[in-house]
Amino acid sequence: MESIDDLPGGSMEVRLAADPREIDAAQALRFQVFYTDGGAQASPETAASQRDRDDFDTVCDHLLVIDHARGETPAACIVGTYRLMRRENAAKIGRFYTAAEYDISRILALPGEILELGRSCTHPDYRTRSTMQMLWQGIAKYVFTHDIAMMFGCASMSGTDPQALALELSYLHHCHLAPEEFRPRALPALYTPMDLLAKGSVTPKQALAALPPLVKGYLRLGGFVGDGAVVDRQFNTTDVCVMVKTDLVTDKYFRHYDRTARGGTV
Question: Is 115 part of any domain?
C-alpha cells in the first residue's frame, strides 16, 4: 500500500498502513471504540470477528497513529486511525461511503481532487490533543501530496435523539451551513431537520462546548455542514455531513506542514 513519509513524535509516528496486518489492527481498534465502548449494534459476523470492517476498507488508505512504546505488533501499538478515500478509490467500489446518507452530487461535480474522511477513532488512553494533532498532521501531508481541493465525510454525535442535540444541530445549521453550490443534503428518507431552535436562542459558546472534539476540529479548519442530520441507529449516533475546502483552511497545522508536505512523496 502507498505510504507517506513518517511524521515522528518521540515514540509515536503517523503514517499510512503498510500491510494487511496493520489494517486488521485498525479494524480491531474501530471495533473496540464503536461497538465495545460506543454501543453500536454488531451483526453476528462483526461480533464474531471483533472487527469493524466493510468493503470500503479494501480500496481506501488507512492513516495510523502508532506508539512504538506499546509493543512491536500492530495490535499493540496502533492507537489511532482515519480512513481516507479519493475519487480513484471510490471508483473501484462505485461510490463514496457518505453517499449512503447524503446526496453529495454537488461535491462530486467540483473540479479537482476530493477526499472523504471517515472511521476516525483513537484508543481510550490516547484521546488527547497530541494524538489528534498527529492525525491532522498526517491528513495535512496527504492533502498536499494529492493536491486535495475538498475534504468531506460524516461526523457523528453520540445518541439518536435529535431533540437532545438541538443546541448543537441548530448552531451548526445557523452558523456553519455550507454554500449552496457544494452543499450536500441528507437523503429524503433519512432527513432530520437541524434548525430545531431559532437562531436567536442559540448561544455559540455553549454550543461549541457541547460539540464533539472531532466536529470542533473541522470547524477550526473553516468547515461547513450539509443540510439535514441523519440518525444512525446501528452506531447509536446522529450524523452530520462536514466538508472543508482546503483553500479556506486556516488551521495552524495545515499552514505549518505546507512546506514539508509538498516535499513528500506518496
Answer: yes
